[in-house]
Model the fold of this input.
Amino acid sequence: MAEIVVSGMRPTGKLHLGNYHGALKNFVALQEKYKCFFFVADLHALTTAYKQTEDLAANSEQMLIDWLSAGVDPKKANLFIQSDVPEVSELNTLLGMITPLGWLLRNPIYKDQLNELLARKYAGQLKGDENTPLAERVKGLADEDISVYGFLGYPVLMAVDILIHKAGLVPVGKDQTAHIEIARDLVRRFNEIYKTEDVFVEPKPLFTEITVMPGLDGHKMSKSYHNTIDLGEDIDSVRKKVMSMFTDPNKKKATDPANPDGCVVYAFHKVYNPDYKKRCEECKAGALGCVACKKQLFELMEPQLTAFSNRRKIFENDKAQIVQIVKDGAQAARASAAVTLAQVKKAMKVTR
Ligand code: TRP
Done:
């Protein structure tokens, strides 16, 4: 039997090239080899953005359209929206019962995210640095926004996403390591308490070779840094962005030798140009000016981006097809989830 893969993404609106090269491209490859469940983690979005829910449904749909436009194929992979599978919420309740609070409070991702969210929300008003206890950092400021049960329980819900389909492999970024660890620990704890080995599979993370995609300013590409190129973005806008990318400031003339390390254009060449090593030498030797280098980069990016945009337009104009894909996906995911949920209830003796 083919190994089962589960992965999800929180719907944050339109995806950018960082999302594509960091994760989505990988979904497209994985669907050829494994039985895949890829889902839009809308409940996970609620753990932090529970007050901004106007766009949640639209964002979830937009994300699915991005996946389809990138080549994720509902005939090969199972695509669904997390909240369409109520079995997930039920198992979340059950596994919540056996999750020690300490695991959640010590979760480094929880602490980091809390810090990051607080820093963004209270920019300029936070006291101390990241090592200062949270309660001290936000003294006098309302921190109730993200100090909620749901956010603390993020890893339980994520474990449920994975365990409910008995996935052996979970493609995630290295930043999610602690969450996978909690999922594995929960399996062991469940097995120990209920004296069984037959319900869950202990999942392993599948770290892909990370394509580091910097943003236009050289920092990590991220929506919150406003440095993205979006999938499906107007091609003229992409051209402008590429032509205004940051390069080695020491290179004043086209013939000046330069240092490609730290140059955003070069980082993009690494992703789009199979001959990027040659480009590195040319850059160091001052054999090519930055304008020409950028033009070439844009030409390498254009076919892929245009193909994506064209596919996106087709899906955007075929709402009925999207509705059907989401419906079929939910049905298949629910069938798979129901099997595990029934086994869990039996093991925990919550059936009559
Ligand atoms: N926490 C993941 C992230 O932020 C998203 C996610 C939710 C996920 N549930 C999952 C990833 C289950 C893999 C498997 O990237």
Remarks:
- Residues 4-112+147-213+319-348 form a domain with the Rossmann fold fold (CATH 3.40.50.620).
- The longest strand covers residues 4-9.
- The chain has 15 helices and five strands.
